[in-house]
């Protein structure tokens, strides 16, 4: 599938939540999940990783099945001059492919670091290594980024000429996800670490 | 299924995008969609409506099938004291049920107004009626809100006592979706209407 890879990876960097669709029994189930994309991952055109508890039924149901991972960033509300031309501005990537349970310890550790660093860039390097128990409790799925489509809508409404001529107002309301001040845990000592501070500042400024 | 209905409807009011999972061919497909919930809708425990173009394959694929509609609001990043205890704060509703194509003209019109008013409260009353052509081009699916589950995570990390004792920082970064100033279309005349202004102000203030 042809897709602008730079635009795809920009969205996968920006967005923080993926919606993973798996077939459980007779019907699809869609669940939110943390994720990370690795353009240089071992799968064709790179790898998208999602993780969860090994106890999660959807992870077992997804393993070796074809799944759909959709990542959407909402960028605005489009107030058209008619109900029909109301819309939303967004970027959405739809990735469809076979879900592979990551069993290689090095790849699994790499994927988990990517997922943490996707939330807070640079953070994984500041943390102790995962324990064997923690690694065993976590399942990581890999989906190839090969079959990926990207849909982007931006700007104002596309209205009927007669509604424009009638002088009805049309436009859009930009939306963005922003961060507030980091909140230290009650037991936390010391200053907010640089990585968390930077993450909050970057998300507060956009 | 037991779920706090007030909390469910508060999330369905807050969130603007649903992710709809349908089975197309052999695998699930997950697509973002505008939606609205009607607690008093005709289905058991109320109705969730999504709409799209009648030309959209996923809407045809969903009709009379069991679908999953998931609505997620991201509320924060949780920076744990270990990679394992990193998480996100979110509220997520998972609704599973048979998708019914809305054919009754009055229900369809009602659902489309709800969807517009979910984006910009009060807006549908200010717009001209939909034309027959517009109504014919739009498909609305109804899913009962009966089988709905809600997952909520809030606050800081739940860390290992030894990591807390070691003095590693832990906390969270609140996230929220905010609106910028409404952007008038190039052809738009007059002031930003009250409904759009209010919507932007409410989303800017939270």
Automatic annotation (TrEMBL), chains A, B:
Origin superkingdom: Bacteria
InterPro entries for the chain: Pyridox_Oxase-rel, Split_barrel_FMN-bd
Name of this chain's protein: Pyridoxamine 5'-phosphate oxidase family protein
Organism: Nocardioides luti
Organism classification: Bacteria, Bacillati, Actinomycetota, Actinomycetes, Propionibacteriales
